[in-house]
Amino acid sequence: MKWIYRRLIIAFLSILITVLLTFFLIRLMPGNPMDAFIQVLIRSGRARTREEALQRAKSLMPLNMDDPLWKQLIDYILGVLRGDLGRSISSFTPVTEIIIQSLPWTVFVSSFALAISFSIGTVLGLVLAYKRGSKFEGFSVATLTIFGAIPNYIMALILFYVFTVVYPIFPMRGAYDSTIKPGLSFDFILSVFRHAILPIASYVLTDFSGWALGIRAMATTILGEDYITVAKARGLRESRIVTNYVGRNSILPQFTGLVLSIGFMFGGSPLVETIFTYPGIGRFFASAVSARDYPLLQGLFLMLSTTVISANLVADILYTRIDPRVRMGD
Amino acid sequence: MFDKTVGSNSISKAYIFPNPLPFTEVKDMRSRICVLLVILALMSPMLLNFSYAQEIKRPVVFVYSMEANFRPEGHFNSFSDTGYIGHAGVNMFDQLAPHILGTSQYYPELATEWTYDGDWLVVKLRNDVKWHDGQPFTSRDVWSTFMLAKIKGYSVWIVMDDVQIVDDYTVKFHVTGLKDLAQNWILSTYITGPYHVYKKYVDDYIAHPENVDTIGMELNSFTPRTVEEGAVGTGPFMVVNMTESDLWMKKFDGFYAADKILIDYIHGIKEPSNEIGWSYFFSNTADWGEPFSPVPVAEALSEQGVKVLFSKSTRHDFIILNHRNPLLANKLFRQAIAYSINRTELVLAANYPVFHPVEYVIPCSGFYMSNWLDKAFLDSLNKYEYNPEKAKSLFTQLGLKYNEKGQLMYPNGTLITLYAKFPAPWTDIALIMQNLATQLNRVGITVIPLALDWATVTNSELTGDFDIVWDAIGGDHPFLQGFDSTVGYGFPTYAAFPHVIEWQGGEFNLTQFFIDWGKAKSVDEQKTYVRQLMSIYNDYLFAIPFADVDAQFYGSQRFIYPPSYDEAWMCTDYARGIIIGQIIFPGKFTLNMSYWKVQEVPKEEVTQPQTPFETYLIAILAVIIVVLIAVILLRRRK
Fold it and tell me: Which tens digits make up the pLDDT trace of A46-67?
């Protein structure tokens, strides 16, 4: 238990350091929310003169830009402790509300994508390891490397063009059909899945290769182990050897990556979500950076760092359960 | 919302067999049923579509794409600083009388007439207007709109200091000096603050004007999203639904000229980037949009039948030279730069059809030129034709010299290096600025182009941290055009433009010039000031304009769009948003809009919402079920 307490304290300190770092780092970016908002007001025609834009921007700023940095930091930390992440400068909406509204969409898409890519990648990796040296393996590894090298936003653009323009099978934008009233209806659920297919595919097609190549490398090593030779000598079925002997052992190192991916899953992808106009966290990341929306950026980074660090902690704890060779505190 | 009910097929009806029946009859009956079921199965997709088509009234839906953000930014309170209603507002609200740049005329919307009585602009209103929630529109709504504008510090209050209700349908504004400008700003204001919705804020302000800031902040938090919540206007369309990516508006049957509205729904779709915007047209998704595109894309779209349209715009692209840099503060150096730039090459570098090199280096877009500046005056201006040799001679005249590599140096031998900043997300501007660097390198000036994100470019401008920066200027009024270019956008502050300059052998106070200009009431008097400013600008070159930029639009085959000769349409501010109103409401501005009509469209193209994918899934499922039943029945036969 002592080990867990120590890990919990380290996790808490890590989150705190991340909060402090992000607080200062985002303020080191050139520009500030006031300037960005003035520009938006002028360019959109909402303010006729710079003076009008300045006055409106000042009246809107939820954080006092003139306060010294240390005071802003203390205000922010006190706010976080109270559960108040502040209000977004660009939308004047509470940051927690934005996260609550957008997170489910990101988690929905990312979790499906992760589950699918991990499953496909694991099975494919095992098959490739078992068929090592064959033409199939050579071709597959080359293909997987190419897929793995494609950024997900490029894949998203390709899928967008092919499946919404050339063959308009899937919807172009949004999380669901805007003519359907959200609710627990068949229409709505079907619509949600239809809209999620292309974003999910963008992630899966670029991520599964990483899992496959990773597990292939591990499984190849395991296949050379003595206990595999013994298993074969005992006349066990190939499928049993692949799943029970090779699969279970080679999946262990992937486990940490999987749990960490679960943590990163909450961040979404700004570009993929922007391409599909998907209302997830990633899209807000993109808009918050361009608007220098400090409260929103801080809130999103806090959420992301908390999930990643928590996932790391969970991975550490679970790993000791999964792999008996690893003992807490050892 | 739309009725998306899919018509049910009746295959689930139970068939009651008479009992007892001879075995052979039962066998025949089963065979018949099987055949019937198989036929039904094969036909079910068709039947489903047919029933669907029968049930859904085929509304005329106008789909347009736009860059604007919706929720959470887009709630329908125009007085909230984050509630930008953008394109939706154009159709949801009416102005008193919009000013059409192309014709320089005002067209009555909510106002029927307006006259000056001394310093009072008296405006008479229509008496047959209703808000979307059924409440009558009166002068109190106009008054409350302007009071809300005062709470929020809108600049219309620069040109007026009072608004009063005369009677239910008459309101008057006390104008402070700039009558032409005041009329323009007041009449073009969208009436977005119905008193019955915003009563609390207006009354609070009247009772406690000292609490203006608090009331202003409270206004920010008022976020009506539905008609019931107060998202009401007087315009031809009312809000139905809004998601992150889609906006639906519905024809308002109580609109004072509802019979002229030809479109049932407006469907706005978000365009996260130009590339996605092009896709909307390649896939025939949108009827209208304005994503800028390079020549090859415009041609490809055109070949596909998309109408690529251009309209004159007031946008005028500049390179701003920072006068904090002593070199750039020198008039001769700025003139040398102007001679170093081949403006045609510059705009061709982008390969976007919207850019046209300016003929005259003045802050007046081509759009206004013919109205405000005569040919003789324009001919008297220095055109700064591309002349690198002249540029080099000016550099020499300034005491600058070249090193052995042909690079320009200060007299002390230090290399002259200028940083040119521009927004990276706009590829056309990036190409132009890179070409600018190339061109200036040719005359020996080392220019380093810096592609940055918008916020950084803005910050650089505001803090004066640049040598050269790209920017665009546009104005909604000829008077303002000059005003904005030199004062309104704050370039004197950003780029340290001087307030007092040397001009015609003496000192010239620009600040006083603008004050005097502000007092000019007649158009002729204003023209004198415009000419004087253009002369000064042309010589002094505070900044260097290089391109007039058209607006670029795309239209589908489903609607007929106006011909290019229509002056009313040929202007961005009119076209950008109001054109949507025009498509929807021919004659709204009492123009000859006979070409505004909906084409007869093949049924399958106009149906909205389109047959959803689930219909086909249900159909396929039905096929499978029916075939399974058939198989089971046939098995029993054996």
Answer: 666 666 677 777 766 666 667 7
Q: What is the pLDDT of residues A3-34, one digit of tens each?
A: 788 888 988 899 889 888 888 888 888 777 87
- Using a CB–CB cutoff of 8 Å, tell me whether A55 touches chain B: yes
Inter-chain residue contact A32 with B459, CB threshold 8 Å: yes
Give a yes or no: residue A94 inside a domain: no
Is B82 part of the contact surface with chain A (CB cutoff 8 Å)?
yes
Helices (H) and strands (E) in chain A, counts: 14, 0
Strand partners, B268: B64, B247
Domain B315-550 classified CATH 3.40.50.620?
no
Does A42 share its domain with A139? no
Determine, for residues B283 and A59 on separate chains, whether the beta-carbon distance falls below 8 Å. Answer: no
Looking at residue B221, its pLDDT comes to 79
Instruction: Quote the distance between the C-alpha of residue B296 and its chain's center.
Output: 24
Which residues, 6+ apart, have CB-to-CB distance to A122 below 8 Å? A211, A212, A215, A247, A251, A254
Structural domains of chain A, count: 2
> Which one of A174, A181, A292 has the shortest CB-CB distance to B246?
A174
Q: What is the dihedral of CA B94, B100, B104, B107, to 10 degrees?
A: -40
Question: Which residues span the domain enclosing A37?
Answer: 2-82
Residue-wise pLDDT for B484-515, tens only, equals: 444 444 555 677 777 788 888 888 887 778 77
Name the H helices within B556-612. 572-573, 579-584, 603-606
A100: enclosing H helix or E strand: helix A95-130
On whether residue A187 sits in a domain, the answer given is yes
Residue in B155, B459, B614 closest to A187 by CB: B614
Q: Do B82 and A91 touch (CB under 8 A)?
A: yes
> How many Å is the Cα radius of gyration of chain A?
24
Domain boundaries, chain B: 1-56+609-638, 57-69+235-306+556-607, 94-234, 315-550
ipTM for the predicted complex comes to 0.79
Residues in A closer than 8 angstroms to B188, CB to CB, are none
pLDDT above 50 (res A256): yes
Region B585-599: what's the mean pLDDT? 34
Which residue has better confidence, B107 or A146? A146
Query: First and final CA of chain A: distance in angstroms?
Result: 13
Same domain? A225 vs A312: yes
The answer on pLDDT for B186 being more than 80 is yes
Does B536 or B258 have the greater pLDDT score? B536
Are A310 and A270 contained in the same domain?
Answer: yes
Provide CATH code, domain B57-69+235-306+556-607: 3.40.190.10
Mean pLDDT of B133-154: 94
The reply to whether A93 falls in a domain is no
Residues A67 and A140 in one domain: no
Residues on chain B touching A38 (C-beta within 8 angstroms): 458, 462
Fold entry, domain B94-234? Dipeptide-binding Protein; domain 1 (3.90.76)
pLDDT of residue B630: 58
